[in-house]
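assembly run, all chains below
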Amino acid sequence: MIKMKNRQILPVTNADEINQLLRRYGVKFGVYKNGQFKEQFFPFDPIPRIIESEKFKVIEKGLVQRADALNKFLFDIYHGKNIIRDGIVPEDFVYISSGYLPQCEGVTPPENIYSHISGIDLVEGGDGEWYILEDNLRIPSGASYPLIARELTRAASPDVFSENGVVDNRNYAKLLKDTMDFVNRGGINAILTPGRYNAAYFEHSYLAELTGAALVQNDELYVEDNMLWQKTYSGGKTRIGALYRRISDEYLDPLTFNSQSLIGIPNLMEAYRSGNVAIINSLGNGVADDKGIYYFVPKMIEYYLGEKAILKNAPTYLPFYEEDRDYVLKNIHKLVIKDVAEAGGYGVVFGSDLSEEKLADFRKTIINEPRRFIAQEVIDFKDLPILENGEQVMRKADLRAFVLSGETTRVWASGLTRFSRNPDSFVVNSSQGGGFKDTWILSR
Amino acid sequence: MDTVTIERKSNISTEHSSRIYWLGRYTERAFTTLKSLERLYDKVIDRDPEHYKKYLDCFGLNDIYGDYKKFFRSFIFDKDNCCSAAYSLERAYDNGIVLREEISTDALAYLQLAKDKLESSENTPQGLVVAMMPLEDILYGFYGCFADHVYNGEIRDIFFCAKSVERVELYIRLKYRSEKILSESERMCEFLKRIPENTPYRYNEKNLEGLMKMIYSKEYIGRESEAISLIARLFDGGAI
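ok done. output:
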C-alpha cells in the first residue's frame, strides 16, 4: 500500500508482466553509441507517481498560465517586440539565442499559436512545492510512454484501477488531434518523422496511429503552389494542412535553414509563411525555451497576463548580470551549472562533483562566456520509490507535463515521470539510462 | 474516456505501398522457409542426412555447412544468412515498424513476438519442429490480425498479393508439388486483379499471362529460373 494524506493506494506490483507487454508492443527508444544505432526498451517502473486532485488543479492552472505567456512571448518577439522595448527581457537574451530565427520575423502561425505542445519539466521539492525546471517548446517528446503504459497496466492490474480512482489519461490522442484540427489549414494531419532510426520513432508512429494522422518522411512530400502535398502511390497527391514535425527547425527546409539538410522539405517555409500549412510546433520556438530565457518567464507572466506566476522557477542566476555572476563564481561548488545550448541532460554540471582545479577552470569559462550558462540552486527534490530486484529503493525523478494549446489551453492529466537509475544521479534522461513511471492524477 | 474517431485516408504514399509489399513478402518468406525446413528436417533425421544439399541447390548455394545440424541452425537462426527465417523476420519487422499507423500496434506486436520467439528458441532442448510451431502460430496470428484490423482494402490487397507472390516464387524454387503451385498461383491472380491500375503493383498483363501459361502446362519444371524471372517482372511498376 502507498500512503497518501487521506487514504491508502493499492500499488501496481507486476512489473515484469507489464515490461513484457511493453516489449511486445515495441515500446522502445533509439540511442546512438559509437556511431551505431541501437533500440532499447524503455524500463518501466510500476510504482506510479501520484498527484492528488487538489494539488493537480494548482499545477494545471500554473502550467496553463505559463504556456499562454510563452505563446504570447513568441508572438511578440517575432512581431512587435514590446517586451524588449519595455525592458522586461534584455535583447541580448533574444537575439543571441540560437533558437531565435530571423527568418520567422513577421510570420504569423495559424491561430497565432506557436507552442501547440509544450513539454514542461517540473520537480517536487522536499517541501511539497513544485518547481519548473525547464520549458520544452520545440519537439517535446515522451507522452506516448505513459499513454501506452497505462493501457497495458490497466489490462495487467485491473483491480488497481477499480480501487484507486485514477483519472484516465488515454485522452491524449484526442487532445492532440483536436489541436492539429484546430490549426489545420485544409487537408490531412501528418506527423513528419526523420525515420525509423530516430530516438523517438516509437512515439512518432504510435501517435500517428492513435490520431489517424499520416506518418510521413520528407521524400514523399513536396511544396507546390505554396501548399504542402504528399505523393500517393497512384500518382496523385494529398494536401497536408497540419504538419506535426518531429524534426528540428534547422533541418526543416534546406532552402531557408541548413542547406545540407537531407531530411527537410524545400520551400516548406514558403507554404508556412503563406498560411497554407500549420507547423506544430511552430518554427522559431527555441528562443522561448532557451535556458537563459527561462529566468524571465515569471516576468513574462506578469507582463502579458497581469498575474503572478503560480509555479515557481528553480532559483536561477544569470552570469550575464554582474551581480549574479559574482554570486555564481563564489558559490559554484554548491550550484548546478547548465550550458544553455545543450539538451537531453548533457551540459549539466554539478559544482559539488568538480575538483578545485576544475572549478577554477570553469570559473574562467563562465567569465569568458557568461551568456552561455545559467546556474541554479540544487533543489532538494523529493525522491520517489522504484522497484529494483524486488526491493523498493529511492531515486531522483522529474515530471514532464504536457500542455496542449489549441482552441483552449489544456493540461494532460498525466505526464512522463522519469527517474534516475543511478542512486547518486540527478540525471533522469532516457538517453542516459533513466527509466519511466506512469503519473496518476487522482480523481477524488 | 475521450477517444478519437479516425477517418483513415484512402491514399497510400509510394513509400508505404512499397513497405506494405515487402512486409507481405518477407513475412511469407519467413513462414514458408520454416514450413519447408520442417519438411526437410523430417527427411534428414533418419532417411537422408545429406538431403539438405538439395535445398541449397534450389538457391544455387554451395554446402559450407558440412552437416545438416549446422545447416538448420544457419537457415533458421542466422540473421546474416539472407535465406534464413531470422533474416526474413528481421526484414519483415523493418518494414512493419514504419507502418504502425497503417497496420496497427496490435498487428505489429505479432512481429515483435515472432522475433522474440525465434531468438528464445535458438537454444531450446525441444525438437526443432516442435520449437518452431509456436512461431508459425504467431505468424498465423499476424496474418489474421492484419486481415481483421486493417480496414483499408488497398493495404490488405497489396499485402496479401505480395504474400502470395512470394509463396509462388518459393514453391517454384523449392520444387513443391505442381498442384500446390497451381492453387497458389490462381490465388495470386485473384489478389493481383484487385490492385488498382496506375499503381506500382498493378500486374503486367503479358508477363502474368506468360507465367500462368507455364504453370498450367507445367513447363516451369526444369525451367524454374525462367518462371522466377517472370515473377520478378510481374508488375507494371518495374522489376522487383
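Chain A touches chain B through 38 residues (CB under 8 Å).

The longest strand of chain A covers residues 391-405.

not gonna interpret more than that til we talk
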